[in-house]
Amino acid sequence: MTTPKGTSGRGQRDLHVKVKTARGRKLSSTRWLERQLNDPYVAAAKRDGYRGRAAYKILELDEKYRFLVPGARVVDLGCAPGGWCQVAVVRVNALGERPGKKIGTVLGVDLQEVEPIAGADIHVLDFLADDADTLVKGWLGGRADVVMSDMAASASGHKQTDHNRIIALCEAAAEFAYDVLEEGGTFVAKVLAGGAEGSLQATLKRHFRKVANVKPPSSRADSSEKFVVATGFRGRPDPDADPAADEMDDDAS
Ligand SMILES: C[S@@+](CC[C@H](N)C(=O)[O-])C[C@H]1O[C@@H](n2cnc3c(N)ncnc32)[C@H](O)[C@@H]1O
């Protein structure tokens, strides 16, 4: 449904544009330019008014798992330049453009400044900073139905370092999700395939009814990126619950 037009449907554009190396341009830049010119999702983003091809990743994940519903309260971590926010604003009906449907909210944060997006509340923030959780909770002003993270540190070129960094970001996002999600809520986050994500998966499985690892069609085949989609948040343990209550129940039986 979201496969861009003008493609064979297998992520290949029908006409391949070749870029010649030019004086002063590095080979890596030439390759990047060629890939951009031949990427059907880049062309589609331009046509559809999205700020980047990343928009199709959340569109495709949402086509499958349906978490961006009218009325949903969404937190988008690492939201620059804003593609995911653009998609979320429309799908949760943040601008109230679909009469009769519930109105949702979109809160985005990123290290970088983001051009304003109507219907989204966006803040510049390092999500790994000590007070980040408290700040985002304050802006949110209550629970969220969806916490999604596309956060990624700039590539260091060292595979293991990049992997560890993205897992650290993902774990911070997950910890935040456990704190703010409404029961039944959804957590979506970018991870890189590479081993260390095992403990994260195990923790997610304790907190959510279903945990899936997905590579949406728009995610480049040559990237080790994938997404974890955790649905059916089980809710937070009641902080006022008497830890001895279980024992008392056992005794009573
Ligand atoms: C792939 S981009 C996100 C693209 C976005 N989903 C979109 O649709 O436009 C990854 C973003 O994560 C952000 N990021 C990385 N580390 C972060 C951190 N510690 N706190 C907040 N944002 C961070 C980067 O600044 C970058 O904008």
Structural class: alpha/beta
Average pLDDT figure: 86
Number of helices: 8
Major sheet:
7 strands, mixed
List the ions, cofactors and other small molecules found in this model.
Answer: S-adenosylmethionine
Order of helices and strands: HHHEHEEHEHEHEEH
Q: How large, in whole angstroms, is the Cα Rg?
A: 20 Å
| CATH-defined superfamily | Vaccinia Virus protein VP39
**What is the number of strand segments?**
7
Quaternary state reads single chain
Characterization of the model:
The protein is α/β, with parallel strands linked by helices. The protein has one domain: Vaccinia Virus protein VP39 (Rossmann fold). The protein contains eight helices and seven strands; from the N terminus they run αααβαββαβαβαββα. The protein is globular and about 70 Å long. Bound molecules: S-adenosylmethionine. S-adenosylmethionine (SAM) binds next to α4 and β2.
Concise description?
It contains 8 helices and 7 strands; from the N terminus they run αααβαββαβαβαββα. With 253 residues, it is of the alpha/beta class. It has a 7-stranded mixed β-sheet with strand order 3-2-1-4-5-7-6, with helices on both faces.
